[in-house]
Every structure is written in C-alpha cells, then in structure tokens.
C-alpha cells in the first residue's frame, strides 16, 4: 500500500488533479497497485485566509508519505513570487529533490515537427546547483557602501544547501570606476556524483546503452570539466556509453534528430531552457509532466503548467499533463506496468480525438479524465 499526499493547489490544478485521481483509481482497480491519498489544503485559498505557505506541520505530514502528487499553484490575488517561493521552491529545497525529470515524448501529430519521428527523451535536470544558487551581488559606486581604503570592494556571498553551507568573500579590485555584478555558478563533487549515479541507473532501467551529458565545457571549463570527469567515472562504473553535447548544438539536435537521444543529463540553467524547448516539441504545456525527485526521500510529481487563471473553472484544462505526471509517479514508485497503462490510454484518447479544446477536441477536463479511466478499466476484460 502506497501513501500519497495529494496537493491540488490552485486554479486548474484542482481540475486536472481530480481527473488524474480518477485515472489512478482506475489503475488500482485492475492491478496490484494500491494506494491511499491524503488531500492537503496547501495553496492560495489557505494562504489568503491564514497567511500559511508551507508550514512545519505540512512538512512533517508530507515526510510521512511515499510521494506527492501536485497540481499547480498561482493566484492573481497573490503577488507573484510569494506562493512559488514559499511553497514550490521551499518544498524542492526541504525535500532535497535534486533531480528534475522531464520526459519529452513524441505525441504525433500534436508535435510541431513536420515529419513523424518517434522520440522519447528523458531529461534529468540537476535541480540544486550550477548558476541557480542565488550566489551573486552587484557592487560599485551605485551599490556599495563598503569601498575599502585601497579602492577595493569586499563582496560577501553565502550559500546554504542540504549537504553544505559555504561562505565566500571576494576582494574585488577594479581598476576602472564602474558598477559590476557577479553571479557564481557552483557545483560540488557530491552534488554531481549523486546526479550522475541517478542518471546511470535511470538509463539502465530504461534500457538505454548511453547517457548524454549536456554542457558548455569548452567555455565554462571548470564547472563542466569537473562534471564531465565525474560522469565519465560513473559511466565506466556502470558500463554505459557517455556522449557529450554542447548546449547550443543540443538545442539544434533536438529539432533535427530528437530520436537519437534517450537519457539526457543537463545542468540546472541549461536544463531550464532545454526542457521548455522540449515541452513545445512534444505538443505544448498541456502534455508535459515533471518529477522533482529525491531517490532516497519524498519526490513530487506535477504537470509542468501553472494554475492558468484565464481558463480556470471552465472545464477547458487539458488533464493529460497531470495524467502523465501520475504515470511518472507510478513508475517512480515501482509500478512501470501500471505507468504504461496510463501512457497507452493517453495515446488512445489522442488517436480518437477525445480531447480538450487546446488539442482541437470538444471534451471537458473531467470527460477526458473519464475517457482515459474508462480505457484503462476496459483493459481488464
Ligand atoms: P500557465 O501554465 O498557468 O498558463 C499558460 C497558458 O497556457 C495559459 O493561456 C493557459 O490557459 C494555458 N494552459 C496551461 N495549462 C493548460 C492546460 N492544462 N490545458 C489547456 N491550457 C493550458 O502559466 P502562466 O499563465 O504563466 O501562470 C499562471 C499562474 O501559474 C501564475 O501564478 C504562475 O506563477 C503559476 N505557475 C505555477 C506553476 C506550478 O505550480 N508548478 C508553474 C508555472 C506557473
Ligand atoms: Mg522554466
């Protein structure tokens, strides 16, 4: 019996999670997969009533679960950044979800490519380090009150992570009087190693014989050079091929030959960009699921889209991204066969035009959810 926390969140998050739950129920009826789902009120309604975002009580409740199934947060009544930072980013940090898994699957003919290509790229984006650490500062006459007697600046920076804290003090001595800004990209051996290890295991579980590592090691030689060394050691250890791709070449290759990639490891900043390119490549926001994974902790699965206030409450939301997030949840929790049932059911409704308006169909969110669930239930016969 698996124990899940269900956080529908805001706007269409509520609608697509309702559809996703109907589908999970269907799977549990015809397979050995059993679960209970405890609903959580985390989101904007509660925040507006009580001021609570992600509380200590929430965290200790969520820690007891096997995984989290999440809709979306975001509400026009709340200033941008508050819910994202206080709930989503905090959750990823507290649970040290250091892998962001983003499958990019060909859902032909929804894909923007003109030819039919069968691709299924699984991006594993490192989610805690690199250039997204908030490790930066501006200094110069417009900013700093700390100019030393010798004309230099002491730029103090600090980083706090699950596995380490670090303080930096940069003594900057510019020869020209100007404003400057730095943003440090930091990686650690432990951070790269655990990510590389997950990537190798993931590739083997998928049946891939290679892992592609995306970087810009020809220019950012230190961070991505160290990354290459560690990935190479891991690839040798697991007997896998390792392919290096520069991120600029990768963005072209994803359009020209997406079918040649399987498991792709990509650092945080480049991963942000490539996975959005991937989202469009597979047919848009309504088709993308995302996993925030800690292989030894509590992982969270969500559609990549937000709360879509422009269509909330109208039954127009495409629930397929949420269903594909449920597929990832099942696979992650050790139910790959059941995950495939969801995948096949999604293929079926697409092929039969049982879709919401964004995909050219006429159905409501709940009707698509029901069509997917019914297809699964019919597999029993
Ligand atoms: P969004 O993803 O909510 O919507 C972008 C556009 O795509 C809208 O026109 C929307 O109607 C459409 N769309 C999105 N999902 C759809 C679906 N399943 N079916 C059909 N159409 C769909 O992004 P937006 O508008 O930038 O943000 C809205 C709110 O969501 C903001 O508060 C934002 O902060 C939040 N957000 C939350 C995320 C999360 O919880 N992980 C991720 C992205 C945004
Ligand atoms: Mg993004």
Short description:
Helix 7 runs parallel beside helix 8 and helix 9 (320-332) runs antiparallel to helix 10 (336-351).
Describe the structure.
The chain has 381 residues and is α/β, with parallel strands linked by helices. The chain is built from eleven helices and 14 strands. The strands form three sheets. A ten-stranded mixed sheet has the order 2-1-3-14-13-4-5-12-10-11, sandwiched between helices. A two-stranded antiparallel sheet has the order 6-9. The longest helix has 19 residues, at 12-30. The model has no long low-confidence stretch (mean pLDDT 95). Magnesium ion is lined by residues 272, 276.
| Hetero groups | 1,4-dihydronicotinamide adenine dinucleotide, magnesium ion
Distance between the termini: 24 Å
Q: What's the total helix number?
A: 11
Strand content: 15-25%
Strand order of the largest sheet: 2-1-3-14-13-4-5-12-10-11
- Provide the residue-averaged pLDDT: 95
Q: Give a short account of the largest sheet.
A: 10 strands, mixed
CATH architecture designation of the largest domain: 3-Layer(aba) Sandwich
Note the quaternary state here. Answer: single chain
What structural class is derived from the secondary structure elements? alpha/beta
The percentage helix is 25-40%
For this structure, the CATH topology of the largest domain is Isopropylmalate Dehydrogenase
Question: Could you name the CATH homologous superfamily of the largest domain?
Answer: Isopropylmalate Dehydrogenase
Shape: globular
